[in-house]
Amino acid sequence: MTDQTAAGLRIRDLRVVFDGFVAVDGVDLDVPRGDLRFLIGPNGAGKTTIVDAVTGLSKATGSVQFGEQELLGREVHRIARAGIGRTFQTATVFEELTVLQNLDIAAGAGRGFARLLRRRRGVPEAVERVLGTIHLADATDRLAGTLAHGQKQWLEIGMLLVQDARLLLLDEPVAGMSHEERDATGALLQEIADGDRTVVIVEHDMEFLRKFARTVTVLHQGRVLSEGSVAQVQADPKVQEVYLGTAADAAVVAEGVDGVDGAGVDGVKVEG
Amino acid sequence: MSALDRLTRPGPLRAALGFGLGALVLLVVAPATLSQFRLDLLAKYLCFGIVAVGIGLAWGRGGMLTLGQGVYFGIGAYAMAMHLKLAQTPPGELPDFMQLYGEVTELPLWWQPFRQASVAVPATVLLPMLVAFVLGQAVFRRRIKGPYFAILSQALAAAMAILIVGQQGTTGGTNGLTDITSFFGYDLGDPVNRTTVYVVVAVCLLGCLAVARQLMQSRYGELLVAVRDAPERVRFLGYDPANVQTFAYTVAAGMAGLAGAMFVCAVQAINPASIDIVPSIAFVIGVAVGGRATLLGPALGAIGVAWLTTAASEALADRWTYIQGGLFILVVAFLPNGLASLPRVVGDAVRRRPAEVTS
To answer: Which of these, A9, A212, B105, B335, has the minimum number of CB atoms within 10 Å of its CB?
Structure first.
């Protein structure tokens, strides 16, 4: 490893085109190892599409490297095995399996065939640790389909942890959560990103972003509009213009964004 | 905890007890109480039960609606029938039907390997598994699933039956391979030997149930359910769902092949009508009626439907087909998880009732 960024996520000239529509248009993005990066931008800015491209779901051109490995062009499950984990906008867990079974499957991609054909005996150590972290230690034998919405999202994050993902890409991890749940999730994500795990979050919730983001990348129409700390991005006139349409109103919002009342300036809602 | 509790709780003990009970009924009670005619019929039903165990795994747990298990049943059946046919043909002669149709003057090359029991017997299981593996990799890698997979598998069953009918000179055509009189040197006309065949079939069924139980309880079984419900999520955890699906599909094909081979021994004949679309769908109906995602539901459902088919067609002739179709619709509409879920559905309904009264 020559420098910090080489070990993190390094995206160069990423382009994703769907039937002639350019969803991502030449994005360069560096997320150093251990960062907690938020990707924000109005609808259609290309946030989720970038996550899809990194994880192999969407075909893309350019270059995506994590550590020293090139990810573009590899199959989805091989990218996952290289240490890239993701969640989806709607929490996707295996509803007919228990919490323990969900986590055990997430922990097991490296298991050999002979081990797969035997029964699970006890709880694997990695799963045991994570059960406490995601506050589901009392729910190990509950079917994942019976969990509350927020618990499902935690289970998904837990699955990424036992999967031992080095890069976690989370698509709206706090959507539909209560205030307390958001704070708990934010603290958990900060804890995860403290060390050699890198976390990238696609999020619309500005209050959540202000509280927990270390760095922010603002996307607009498939390009990077602005990048930096929360304060730097908020002060950027280009960002204010995109979110509000006119520079005149921008000052009002800048106030609102900085305001102590935490009135949650949601990018999408403000846009409309 | 009382001893009774321990025996009725899910776990290895209850499984062993159930397994022992099943073995007792199949291997002791049935031969002692049924007439030879009924026992022969039961042997046939148990063969369908073996196919059903595999379908329960592939469809119930794996979500692959296999509407064409007749293909693998047929490969196993024809492999066994070819061997038994050759074994009872005097050296230097052709099997009777080839002489009759007169289209060939010497034994076709692809019949030759089946002369050896050491080749033919393993082939009844391994050949279907090989075909299923190749097909499974091709299909599941392309992420073909749901109705598309079902139609594909059904078309395959039709194609195979048409192929066999068209090649009358070497396959026996519509008549199939008939008049199989001996089973590895034992005369199949002798009731004692027919009872032996029945016992072998019953042991095969119990063996397949044991294999299916181990697979369902293993980590693989959990993974298979995960692939059924959310294949993309599994992919993002670092697994290739195509491999997970192919394995269950291949095991199911092996069971169907074994069932086909035993069917030939029990019925002493095989023809294309026993392996094409109609019997392929009948297998699935039995599995759906019994409860596709359970261990015993598919086998019991298939055996029950097969038994009803015989009993009802003796009394009702052609009308049975409509009743069978109606039964299938009723189960799919009102008991989507099959008769195996009936106790739970009734239990839920009973529990719900007092609550409604109080509110």
So the answer is: B105
